[in-house]
Recover the amino acids of this structure.
């Protein structure tokens, strides 16, 4: 099973982050589903994740990671120097998530909401779960 990223499909920052990940994941390690999608909702139920969770979520090896933990585990798999961020995982999540939560709380105000979905190429489309 590949690693699955659940993201807020209407958040400009979130969808831009997905595009950023795709560009740095040429092996196709990650698949994607929006939290609002049918598949996203199924995965939330399957892993007993609160359905009101609007965080970035990574499902990997039958475990899930949220917020900064998810972001750091994703960074570890990306091409380039992004792997160098992973050692930050030693900082306790409550401290790491202070910064994550500030951005998450203000993401619509700072980055806006999407009115339209991105239209991926057929190769990228197969990485998205419906």
């Amino acid at each position: 099973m590949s690693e699955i990223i659940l993201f807020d499909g209407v958040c400009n920052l979130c969808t831009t982050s997905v595009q950023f990940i795709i560009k740095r994941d040429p092996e196709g390690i990650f698949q994607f589903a929006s939290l609002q999608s049918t598949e996203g909702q199924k995965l939330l139920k399957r892993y007993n994740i609160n359905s009101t969770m609007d965080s970035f979520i990574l499902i990997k090896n039958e475990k899930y990671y949220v917020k900064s933990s998810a972001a750091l585990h994703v960074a570890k798999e990306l091409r380039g120097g992004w792997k160098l961020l992973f050692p930050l995982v030693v900082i306790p999540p409550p401290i790491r998530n202070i910064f994550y939560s500030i951005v998450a709380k203000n993401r619509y105000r700072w980055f806006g909401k999407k009115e339209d979905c991105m239209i991926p190429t057929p190769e990228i489309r197969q990485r998205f779960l419906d």
